[in-house]
Structures are given as structure tokens and as C-alpha cells.
């Protein structure tokens, strides 16, 4: 005869089961919280192994792990922060974010170096982030960003506080206007699209006109939107700052009647941060007649660091960033990374800026290693410099100024690409 549980006994059994379930859930939750993070996917338990385990082993697995002590937590915090560097990259849709992301991927060395790219308010504000934002030691910006902080914000010592590591690609200033506006002076009092806040044109465009004493009415639109407004004759011109070929204009496959590039003559007003250059027909064949060019200016982009006091923890962190970056430059110059890495000239200077002292130390060491036949850490940069010297030797006339040498370097890049085909 089968016996059934009485009501009180049944309720007691249910309470014990619920308590066991609750304890198991709490133990599992605590185990998930205290367990170290892992990038490996979780693996399903082996049922056969689970069946053969002893009761003692199964019981030990249900115990809550020992909680970490305050000392353990402190050590983890110190280890994770000691060699972590924050990089102010720029707007999420800006070109610098890709460069920053590629650096972070390539330079990652566990607790020895971790680079964290940050989406910011734009290249100009990256200087303020370097100066004031916690955790930021590196930033990408344009050379003329110094103008705002030195002249308008009154930071006379900014050249001592912010230094450059590398000069990135050079961006040309394009001023594209309706046909009736032939010169920059013709644009006085006109509506000019200068791009949205944070982009290079939003700073460089108004700065150019201000230095020349030309009052304009800036309009905060850029790119394809500015081009559309220009075609609708809602604005007189647009300012576009980009490395050649600029995406907005390179996509034009047919002529654009009634519109043209306005020349920007190089003068003393631009000698601090800019280079003289030209917009050539070979770059935009649909917009310029064959073998013609329009003079303009170019502004270099800069990988900048805060110039911490030598011997400080922050200075040591920046120094390690420099070491790790230069060690990995050869990798960055290979696919699938951005082609712009191949155009880096390690010897290139940035007008109006001073170089971070430790960079010179690393470069001198690289040169000595090359002289004694040791494979340098970044062979791509040194071999490119050697090729450039060979290119200069092939020219009928050598450069007479730094500006002319920069222009020749850009021609050299085209020359190198053709030789590699």
C-alpha cells in the first residue's frame, strides 16, 4: 500500500526545495560577479565527465568562491591603469577615428600597453582634451589648432605644454565657389559654408578669411550638403579641408559648369602653420583643364602628446606609447590598414610646433641600429626616407626651402607608387 505525504510534511519539503534553489542561484550569481573576465567563449560541460565526478568534487563546485580582498582590488586597478593611454581621436564620422582604432589594435600588449581611442567633439577640441581632460595623454589634431589657444585663449606657453610625435597626412584647403567669385576678396560679406562644429574646415576656413581681413557670413554645413546648397545658389562658396583627393570632389566624373576653385595665394599670413601647394588637374580631371593647377595652402595633421615633466609617471607612459607605436609602424604600413600609414615621413616637421623630446631619442637609436646593420624596428619609415633621398638626387634642381621640399616629398610619393606597379 503506497503511503502519501501529509500536508505539513509536503509543505516542508517544498520549502527545502525552494531554499536550495535560491541558494544555488545566489551562489551562481556571486560566482559570475567574482570570476575574472575572459574573452574566450563559454564551453558547455561534458555530461560524461559530470556523471563520473565524485560527490565531494560536485559539492566543492557549489561553494561560493572566496571574495577578493581590498588589496586584490587595488592591485588590479593599479595594473590596469599603469600603462593605459587615452587617445582623443575626433568625431565618430571623422577620418582620424580609423587611424586611432588601428593604432589601438596594433599596439595592444596586455597590461604592458593599452591604447583607448576616444570619440571627441572634434580635432580642435582635442587640444583642450590634452590640456584638461583626465586620462588623455595623446590626441590627433591639425597644426593650426594652436592658433585658437595661443591667440584667442591666451595660452602663450602652449608650445611647451603640447608637442608632436608624428606629422600625419597633409590636408589641402579647397574653396569651391560660384563662377562670379574669382578671388577671396570677392567673397567679402558672402555666405560661406565652413562645415559643422569639430571638423577641420570649421576652424581653418574662418581663420583664413580672418587673417586676410575678409569678413564672411559662415554657414555651419559641410560636405555634400554644402555642395547642394552651392548648386542651389543659397551660398557663395564652401570650404573643404581634406587630403587629396578630397572625397566630395573626387566623386565628380563630369564637369561642373558655373563653379570653380578659388586660389589661396601663399603669403606671410600663413607661414606659421601652413604649406604652399596646389590643386592639380590630375587630382580632379573633371573639374580642371588638363595640365592646369590652382594654388592653395595645406595644413598638416598632427599626432600630439602632452609634454609631461621627465621622470613622472605620465611621462613614462607617453614614452612607452612612443616606443610601442614606432615598433609597430611597419605593421601599420601593411594591409589591411589605412594606406595613409605608408605616406608617413618620420623626418617631417610641423610648422609652429616642437617635437616631443623622446621621439628624437628613439629616432637616433633607430639610425644607429641601421648604421651597424641591425634591422630597425620600423624599416618601412627608414627605407622610405632613403628612397626619398634617391628621388631628390634624380631631380634636376634640389629644393631651396622646407616648403619646396615638402612639395617634392608629395611628388615623391606619387613617383614611388608608379615604380611599385
Total helix count? 15
Mean pLDDT: 79
- Going by helix content, strand content and strand pairing, the class is alpha/beta
Helix content: 40-55%
Radius of gyration: 30 Å
Low-pLDDT residue spans: 1-50, 374-383
Strand content: 15-25%
The end-to-end span amounts to 94 Å
Number of β-strand runs? 10
Order of helices and strands: HHHHEHEHEHHEEHEHEHEEEHHHH
Largest sheet: 10 strands, mixed
Principal-axis shape: elongated
Task: Describe this structure as you would to a colleague.
- 43% of the residues lie in helices and 17% in strands.
- The protein is α/β, with parallel strands linked by helices.
- Strands 1, 2, 3, 4, 5, 6, 7, 8, 9 and 10 form a ten-stranded mixed sheet that branches.
- Strand 1, helix 5 and strand 2 form a beta-alpha-beta unit.
- The longest helix is centred in the N-terminal third of the chain and has 28 residues.
- The N terminus is likely disordered.
What's the short story on this structure?
By secondary structure, the chain is of the alpha/beta class. It has helices at 7-34, 47-52, 55-61, 70-82, 95-107, 125-132, 145-152, 158-161, 200-211, 223-231, 247-250, 313-332, 357-371, 379-393, 402-420, and strands spanning 84-90, 114-119, 136-142, 162-178, 191-193, 217-219, 237-242, 259-261, 275-280, 293-306.
Amino acid at each position: 500500500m503506497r503511503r502519501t505525504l501529509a500536508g505539513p510534511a509536503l509543505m516542508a519539503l517544498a520549502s527545502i526545495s525552494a531554499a536550495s534553489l535560491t541558494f544555488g542561484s545566489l551562489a551562481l550569481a556571486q560566482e559570475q560577479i567574482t570570476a575574472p573576465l575572459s574573452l574566450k567563449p563559454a564551453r558547455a560541460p561534458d555530461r560524461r565527465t559530470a556523471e563520473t565526478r565524485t560527490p565531494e568534487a560536485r559539492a566543492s563546485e557549489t561553494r561560493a568562491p572566496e571574495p577578493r580582498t581590498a588589496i586584490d582590488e587595488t592591485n588590479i586597478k593599479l595594473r590596469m591603469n599603469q600603462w593605459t593611454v587615452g587617445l582623443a581621436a575626433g568625431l565618430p564620422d571623422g577620418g582620424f577615428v580609423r587611424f586611432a582604432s588601428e593604432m589601438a589594435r596594433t599596439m595592444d600588449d596586455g597590461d604592458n600597453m593599452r591604447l583607448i581611442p576616444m570619440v571627441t567633439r572634434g580635432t580642435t577640441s582635442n587640444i583642450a582634451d590634452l590640456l584638461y581632460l583626465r586620462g588623455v595623454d595623446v590626441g590627433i589634431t591639425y597644426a593650426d589648432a594652436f592658433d585658437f589657444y595661443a591667440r584667442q585663449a591666451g595660452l602663450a606657453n602652449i608650445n611647451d605644454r603640447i608637442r608632436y610625435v608624428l606629422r600625419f597626412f597633409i590636408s589641402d584647403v579647397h574653396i569651391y565657389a560660384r563662377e562670379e567669385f574669382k578671388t577671396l576678396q570677392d567673397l567679402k560679406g558672402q555666405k560661406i559654408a565652413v562645415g559643422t562644429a569639430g571638423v577641420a574646415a570649421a576652424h581653418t576656413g574662418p581663420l583664413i578669411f580672418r587673417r586676410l581681413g575678409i569678413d564672411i557670413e559662415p554657414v555651419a554645413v559641410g560636405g555634400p550638403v554644402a555642395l547642394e546648397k552651392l548648386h542651389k545658389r543659397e551660398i557663395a562658396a564652401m570650404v573643404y579641408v581634406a587630403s587629396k583627393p578630397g572625397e566630395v570632389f573626387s566623386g565628380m566624373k563630369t564637369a561642373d559648369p558655373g563653379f570653380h576653385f578659388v586660389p589661396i595665394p601663399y603669403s606671410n599670413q600663413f607661414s606659421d602653420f601652413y604649406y604652399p601647394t596646389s590643386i592639380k588637374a590630375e587630382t580632379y580631371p573633371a573639374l580642371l583643364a588638363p595640365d592646369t593647377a590652382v594654388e592653395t595652402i595645406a595644413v598638416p595633421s598632427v599626432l600630439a602628446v602632452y609634454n609631461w615633466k621627465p621622470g613622472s609617471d605620465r611621462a613614462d607612459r607617453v614614452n612607452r606609447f612612443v616606443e610601442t607605436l614606432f615598433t609597430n609602424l611597419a605593421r601599420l604600413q601593411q594591409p589591411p590598414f589605412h594606406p595613409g600609414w605608408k605616406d608617413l615621413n618620420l623626418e617631417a616637421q610641423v610648422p609652429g610646433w616642437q617635437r616631443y623630446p623622446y621621439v628624437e631619442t628613439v629616432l637616433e637609436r633607430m639610425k644607429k641600429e641601421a648604421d651597424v646593420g641591425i634591422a630597425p624596428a620600423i624599416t618601412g619609415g627608414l627605407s622610405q626616407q632613403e628612397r626619398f633621398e634617391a628621388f631628390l638626387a634624380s631631380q634636376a634642381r634640389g629644393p631651396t626651402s622646407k616648403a619646396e621640399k615638402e612639395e617634392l616629398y608629395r611628388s615623391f610619393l606619387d613617383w614611388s607608387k608608379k615604380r611599385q606597379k
